[in-house]
Amino acid sequence: MDRIAGIINLDHEQDMMDELTYFRCGAAVPFAGRYRMIDFTISNMTNSRIESVAVFARRKYRSLMDHLEQGKAWDLDRKRGGLFILPPDWNDPTDISKGDLQHFHNNIDFINRTLADYLVVSGSQNICNINFQDVLQEHKKADADVTVIYSKVDELYPEHQRAHKLDIDENNRVTAIHNDHSSTNVYMDMYIIEKDYMYELIEKCIAHGCSHFFLDGIKAKLPEINIHAYEYTGTHALINSIESYYRNSSKLLDATEHDNLFKDEAPVFTKIKNEAPSNYTETSSVRNTMVANGCVIEGHVEDSILFRGVKVAEGAVIKNSIIMQRCEIEGDAVLENVILDKDCNISNGKTLIGAPEKPYVVAKRRTM
Questions:
Q1: Residue 312: beta bridge partners?
Q2: Is residue 177 part of a domain?
Q3: Among residues 261, 295, 330, which one ends one of the domains?
Q4: Does 136 lie in the same domain as 14?
Q5: The pLDDT of residue 90
Q6: Which one, out of 41, 100, 265, 329, has a CA that is 20 to 30 A from the CA of 91?
Q7: Where is the Nucleotidyl transferase domain (predicted)?
Q8: 273: in domain
């Protein structure tokens, strides 16, 4: 069986989620009650029998490193292979690389030493549940130089404007990569490539003063190489803004959407935190809400997501909101269309109301 190694490249992911990325990169943003966004990418890799994963991080990665630790939650704390968190380390005085090619150049040992034949490169903003072994089989069958993964979306949202789109012929060969806002073939920032060919492209890109491996090393060679398109047809969410985060989080309250993303045969793993089950008192009223463990609920909650350790006092009302870890909502407070980051305290009788298209966001550790 051909082996695959993984690279999670966060270098070109912009922190566009306002208060949620004041203190962390987008990959470390909490999502779906108990996960971080990067959990889905790493879980996809480990479920695809990838045993060696590198994370290229440049900015605000302390929270990310704290969450990932040694990779134990994903069975990546190994003697051979495992998880490698690779923040900037520009110590080579002869290095002329720029952009994300600095990561590829300065961590070329990861590529050289891996026993894998192929590499999967992915970002963290596309939430999905995909098996990269299926992609590899199609890549080999098509005799492709590179296989890119895309999703044909039913409806275009503002977040899709920032994504690259694909033109594809009848043989699933990519004929153009562009930013046409009307195209529904959304490139998911994931591709698979043979290790030796990647090394060759990295060297050429650096020699020509390039700064973006995918755009300068792959897209620029489109007329001369075979770039194959693999369509992912499962549940997919592109999260690169507060609005897309709120909307796609809320979709998970639908049982079908939730079950399509969280599959029994391909579970999503995260850092384990041992907490007591959530406690619902006689005064509590909870409807259509995702509740993580460790919560104490005495008030009314509906159509919302509560992360671990949230406390909702008697008389408090929460609707259509996302409340992250260890927030405390005191009595008679009212929250509607609100996102609270971690460790916030909402005082007795306080009212916060946002709009569905523009939720009210509170940065972490705030008291209001």
A1: 297, 329
A2: yes
A3: 261
A4: yes
A5: 65
A6: 41
A7: 20-154
A8: no
Residues of the chain scoring pLDDT < 70: 1, 90-93
Residue 316's domain is classified under what CATH number?
2.160.10.10
CATH number at residue 139: 3.90.550.10
d(CA 52, CA 185): 30
Residue range of the domain that includes 302: 279-362
Last residue of one domain, picked from the residues 231, 261, 291? 261
Give the pLDDT confidence score for residue 335 in this predicted structure.
98
Instruction: Indicate yes or no: pTM above 0.90.
Output: yes
